[in-house]
Each structure stands twice: as C-alpha cells, then as structure tokens.
Amino acid sequence: MTVYVNRAGLQIASALAEFVEAKALPGTGVEADALWRGLADILGRLVPVNRALIAKRDNLQTKLDAWHKANPGPITDMAAYKAFLTEIGYLVSEPVGFKIGTLNVDAEIATMAGPQLVVPALNDRFVLNAANARWGSLYDALYGTDVLDAPAARPGGYDTARGDAVIAYARNFLDSAVPLASGSWVDWDGGDLQLADQAIPIIRRGDDILLRNNGLGIEIVIDRNHPVGKTDKAGIADVILEAALTTIIDLEDSVAAVDAEDKVKGYTNWLGLMRGDLTASFEKGGTTMTRALDDDREWDEELLHGRSVMFVRNVGHLMTNPAVRLPDGSEAPEGILDAVFTSLCAMHDLLGLGKYRNSRAGSIYIVKPKQHGPEECAFTNDLFDAVEDMLGLDRHTIKVGVMDEERRTSANLAACIYAVRDRIVFINTGFLDRTGDEMHSAMQAGPMIRKADMKASSWIQAYEARNVQIGLTCGLSGKAQIGKGMWAAPDMMKDMMAQKIGHPKSGANTAWVPSPTAATLHAMHYHMVDVFEVQKELASKETPALDALLTIPAAARGHNWSAEEVQQELENNAQGILGYVVRWIDQGIGCSKVPDIHDIGLMEDRATLRISSQHIANWLLHGVCTPEQVDAAFAKMAAKVDAQNAGDALYEKLEGNSIALNAARALVYEGVAQPSGYTEPLLHKFRLEKKAAA
User: Fold this and answer.
1) Would residue 487 count as lying in a domain?
2) pLDDT tens across 474-521, in order?
3) Tens digits of per-residue pLDDT, 316-360?
4) Residue 212 lies in a domain
5) CB-CB contact of 46 with 313 (8 Å)
6) At 119, which helix (H) or strand (E)?
7) What 3-state DSSP class applies to 10?
8) What pLDDT score does 583 carry?
9) Annotated catalytic residue, options 605, 606, 610, 687
C-alpha cells in the first residue's frame, strides 16, 4: 500500500517525497516548497493539454480506421490518400528554409561520430558499465566474441593461438585507421614511429601512445612486463578504443517502472550518475566487487573524458504513474514527472556538485520517445520551458532528442524538428516501434505482410533515408546526432561488423549497440567511415518523396498464406511475446537477452513486444488465423519458454492462471483497442497485479 503525503495540493508518494527532499534538492538552491508549488503549477497548466493531445491521437485513429475500411488493401490512389491525411490534420505543411539554433552542445553529440549505448536506468551495475564504456579494450572484445576467423579460445586460461589471432586483427585495424609512413604495424618493433598522415599528432605518456582518427582516440598500451606485451615485438599489451561516446539512461522501453518504488530507483541511479558517486556491488567468483564511474584519462597536459556523455530517456506523453496523484485523485502524467525530476537531478552536474562532469557545455540531455507529430513536440518544448523556469535554468538548458519512431512524426519530421529547433540534439530511427505504429495506424486496411518481410518494404527504405536527409537539411550536422537503431543480437558480433557499417555509411553519426563490447567493436566502423564527409556529400541530395513513406505494408487483396506459414508466424510471434512478458511481469525486468524461437539471444524491450502483439492482433482481426490457432501457439510456445528458462531459479512457469500468461494473451486479444498499439497500459496493469499478489 503506497503511503502519500500532501505537497502543494498534490498527493506525493512518501518514497518519492523523501528522495526529492533529502537527496535531489540539497545543493541545488531550489527550496522544497517552491519545487512542489512549481510542480503543481506545471501539472495544473499542462495536464489538460497532455490529455487533449492523447485524445487527438484517438480521434485521428478513428478517422484512419474508417478510411481504411472504405478503402481496404494497399494504397491505390496516393494523391487521394494524402489529401485525406491533410484534411484530417495528420499531414501538416512542412517548414522550409530553417536551420536549428541549438547552442552549448558537447562535442560527443555535435562534432564526433561513434556508438551509443541504451541501458535500463533501474539497474545500477548496467548503467555504470554503460557510462564506463567510453573506452574499451579491442583485445578483450575480439578475444571473447565471434568476430575472428579463428577457433574459439580453449578453456583453462589464456589461449596463445587465440591471442595471436586477436593481435593480428588489431594490427590490421591499425594499418587501416592510422597507417605507418612505411611498412605495417605487424612489423613495428616499438622503435621510431612515423605515421602516413603526419597531421596526426603522436602523444605519449611514458611508453604508451595516443593517436586520433576521425576524431576518435586510439590508445596503444606498451607494457613489456604484461603477459601479452612481453611476447609482442613492440611490447603492445592492448589497444584501447574510444567507443561509446554517448549513453542513454533509459526510464522508458527497457524498464518495468509502474509505481513510486520503481521510479525512485531509476531517479536514484540517475542522480548518482550526475553526482558521480553511484556504486554497485556484486558477487563474482566468490568475491564481492564494487563498480564505480571511471576517472578521466590523463595524457600529458590533455585530459580525456573518461565516461560517455549521458542522456536520460523520459517516458512519452501517454502513460501516467501513481507516484503523484492530482487533486482529483487521478495519476499524474509520467512524462511530466520525468521532465521535472530528471532535470532536478541533472542540476547537480550543471552546478558542479559531484565528482565528475557529464556535460561540460552546461546542458541537460533528455530523449523524448513516442511523440506523434509536431504538436506533441511543441508540447515537449513548452514542458521543458516550464521546467527551466521552475528550476531557475537558462532557456534551452534542457536539450531534447526526438525519436522518429511514430508514423505521424516520420511524415512530418521537419515540422517536428522546427517545434524544438533551439533545443534539439538528436533524431534517430527505430524499426520496431515504427513498424508497430505502421501496423496499428493501418490496422483496418487488411492483413499485414509477414514480420520478416517488413524490412524489405518500401516505406522502411524511405523512412531511413528521409530521416537522415531531413536532419541534414535542417542543419543537424555539426550540432546534433542523427542516429540509427539497435543491433539486437549481442552474441553475433561478426554479423554486426559485416552489417552495421551501413549506419555510418548512411550519414548517421551514431547508432545503438547492445553492450560495451559491441560499442568497442562498432567503434571501428567510425574509423573506416568519415561520417561528416558522408554528410557533406548527402547534403546536396533531394529528400526522398513522401509517397514511398506512406505506402502501407498490407498484403495484396486476396493474398493467402499457407497453413504452415500461418503457424510459423504465430509461433514466432507468440514465443517472442511470452519470452519477454514473463520476465517483465514476474521479475520486473524490462530489458534482457531473451532467447528467440531458434534459441538465439536477442536484446528485447517493449518495442519488440509491440510489433509481435500487433501483428497477431492484425491477423486475428482479418481472419488470417483463428483464436484457436493463437491459443495453440501460446500453449506450445509457453512450454518452449519454460524450457528456455529452466536454469533461472526465480522463473515462474507459464501455466494455469499465470499472470504473465494472461498479460501476453491480453496484448494480442486486446491489441486492436490499445492506444497506438502500445503495450504499456496492459503491462503496467498486470505488473501491478503481480506486485500486489506478492
């Protein structure tokens, strides 16, 4: 039972009130009474606007449903379709001839290109690992993954043969990134060092060497007493790459935060990162280990930032949370609470109250997800204005990352950017959420193509290309990140190295990776590709037309899948839903490596769940499958998921009246009615039920 205290007419969960008053406020110069009065004022003014925006989503969806019922199947008259979208206000006039005016942006975001991590805010160890992934050992990343064309390391200590393959790969990388004036790094013996590009400074710290390529650091560690270095002709013990330039500390898709207890845990970790005093202790090999933030790296008179520059991803506009109740007893919008409390925590960084600095440019970086169109982006701008005023911050101290993951945002991206033009520092694409919204928006058009075929559909190609081109046209290059989505398979690094180079080649100066190891490996791509040169080449190109983006991935009318194809699709989706939901509901784990139907571990979060549940709901709606077939798929896959989790002592089987199983079924059978096809309302409902039962 949550205990509440009254603050400025609001009911504040006591755990949240205590955190704010005892931990977040001291040192900021903001008084408790002023904070609570300010929050009450913001909620009083902006909650009605927030609710109206959500109602508009529902109103537009009703009109889309009616149109697609009257015009089933793929779009046959694009002009008429666009006219309809314009008439209902779905499409708006795009602003032309403007450039963003964002100021005071850290170099890691504005003028550097490199990997980006996303990590659940509720896990203290994970957020520390991610923040410390700014620098990573290339030797370690190669030794422990499948990147090398060499036998896996033999158990029982250091495998010299594997080590030799690692060293050879790393030398070839150095030959590519920072070639010598003559000869190869393979033959360098530690003597005179001259680079082919004499403009690259060679910085030394004792015997160690620091080089830079495409703005990224490469540390060459020389230690002839090291087990590896003493066998190396140059004494090289390791090659350290500057890796995760930025990290998103996530309060949204990768967490299960349904009440004040969960929110305070996330806010506490964010505050600890902003103060630099967060630690995490854990058992490893029978020994208790403690993790903390890494120090900056000293090179003669140069001090290199030792940690990722951190964003915090707030919740979108839809959800509410019982951590704060309004005077009428209803829950406060969670996105408003996040804006206030994460900004308050970040003031400790702005004011230099902690051990380290996150933003040396004096900014707070917030990623705002799941916004539908420019009106909602403008609302975020107004919200951040209000928070700045309440906390006494200069205008546009709070920067925003706009995730291009909803169809109405993609179709009006320039107008969305314009709405936050003086604080935007980030746009990106995300296949899964974007596909979920694509399907839900056209739910009544007919059955969607199979999930595996989505990536080849024309709207996806237009979506990815338009995002970069519109970002460049609006002046993001050199001022903000243009990002690409996640590589979801953390154990398949060889495939990542073959495929993910496409992201920097597309003009994106960051892309998401699932682990610090993946960040180190993906960093090599930014040495191979000068992203800012690519952006210059792309800047003069035309933005792909809107028509392709608006092409709906509905199957051709009359198309039939075989019984085997239907069963495969249902089982694949059902397994993915169950594997993720059972951990979310029963254990409160919002993101983890979940084995897929082929037992390949994939990093899953709510975006994956959205696409899988919407796909089955769509096929049910249009009679491609029956409820009996769906139930059979859930039953079969429940047994498989139980077997996949047999080694987890905390796991509860998906049987009987399992709350997790009921949640998974609800996501499908109530999927058509869910707002924008989101999974959060049902997940929160069943997670709260599980917590109450416990």
Assistant:
1) no
2) 999 999 999 999 999 999 999 999 999 999 999 999 999 999 999 999
3) 999 999 999 999 999 999 999 999 999 999 999 999 999 999 999
4) yes
5) no
6) strand 116-120
7) strand
8) 97
9) 605
Find the distance separating the first CA and the last CA of the chain, reported in whole Å.
Answer: 12
CA–CA dist 509, 503 (Å, integer) = 8
Q: Which two tokens stand for residue 482?
A: 């243009």
CATH of the domain at 152: 2.170.170.11
Whole-angstrom CA distances from 45 to 30, 316, 336, 379, 383 are 21, 18, 11, 12, 10
Structural domain for 180, as ranges: 137-242
- Catalytic residue status for 208: no
Query: Do the annotations mark residue 432 as ligand-binding?
Result: yes
In a domain, 597, yes or no: yes
Query: 430 a known binding residue?
Result: yes
The last residue of one of the domains, among 242, 271, 306, is 242
Q: Assess whether 605 carries a catalytic annotation.
A: yes
The answer as to whether 384 is a domain residue is no
Boundary (domain end) residue, out of 221, 242, 263: 242
- Cα–Cα distance, 142 to 547 (Å, whole number): 43
Asked whether residue 431 is marked as a ligand-binding residue, the answer is yes
Return the amino acid letter for 35.
L
Question: CA neighbours within 13 Å on the CB side: how many for 65?
Answer: 13
> Which residue out of 307, 313, 450, 466 is catalytically annotated?
313
Cα angle: 572, vertex 575, 579; to 5 degrees: 145
Q: Residue 677 maps to which CATH number? A: 1.20.1220.12
Check whether 313 is labelled as a binding-site residue.
Answer: yes
Beta strands in 1-74 (DSSP E): 4-7, 10-13
CB 320 within 8 A of CB 333: yes
